[in-house]
Amino acid sequence: MTFKHKGLQALFGGTFDPIHYGHLRPVEALAKQVGLQKVILLPNHVPPHRPQPEASPAQRLEMVRLAIQDQPLFTIDTRELERNSPSYTIETLTALRKEMGPEQPLAFIIGQDSLLSINTWHGWEQLLDNCHLLVCSRPGYAANFSEPQMQAWLNKHKTDDTNKLSQTPNGYIFLGDTPLVDISATEIRNNLNNGNVNENLIPAAVMAYIKQQHLYQN
Fold first, then answer.
1. Residue 33 and residue 197: Cα distance in Å, rounded?
2. Which residues, by range, are in coiled-coil regions (predicted)?
């Protein structure tokens, strides 16, 4: 019997504190470039590499729901929010790979900044055994590794052929040509606290929820 996969799917993790267009627009552009059928947003509960989020897990989940409510490309996986221990990407990917089976094409979306520090991630050597990596451009970050061995790893796995991403389950790195949205959640939180946020940076339903919940106001 021939395995019927559901097209190329990708995971995109983050604290989403709050979710904003700097998260969504590059991923939407990437979806068009590589033919993503589904993007699974993966809100973190206890991120290993950064301070605890300001909004509660329930509030961050609701903001993600509101941000994607009219966008069929996106869905949500809450497994990391339900953990009380740090969320390591490799553990989530390994679990998802078991659920989806060995032949389903699966990718993980990261920014150029994350790619350049990926060898600091727990279990990073196993990432490509479970998925492809799709990399979004980030303003101000180098295109290549400074360490020759990491650059060799990138060169070995890099592909410009998007067909390979949807025809194989894992193992490739694709550097996307995505819009450079120079905006961070930290900046948005600071601006909200000062009362001068640009509402074009956040989906309107999310902004309404932030105001209703009095979030990010000291």
1. 31
2. none
Short-list 131, 168, 178, CA closest to 7: 168
Low-confidence residues in the chain, pLDDT < 70? 1-5, 46-50
C-alpha to C-alpha distances, 205 to 20, 50, 213, nearest whole angstrom:
11, 27, 12
Packing angle, helices 204-213 and 57-68, rounded to 10:
150
Q: What does the pLDDT look like over 68-103, one tens digit per residue? A: 999 999 999 999 998 877 778 999 999 999 999 999
Report the predicted TM-score, pTM, of the whole model to 2 decimal places. 0.92
SS3 for the chain is CCCCCCCCEEEEEECCCCCCHHHHHHHHHHHHHHCCCEEEEEECCCCCCCCCCCCCHHHHHHHHHHHHCCCCCEEECCCCCCCCCCCCHHHHHHHHHHHHCCCCCEEEEEEHHHHHCHHHCCCHHHHHHHCEEEEECCCCCCCCCCCHHHHHHHHHHECCCHHHHHHCCCCCEEECCCCCCCCCHHHHHHHHHHCCCCHHHCCHHHHHHHHHHCCCCC
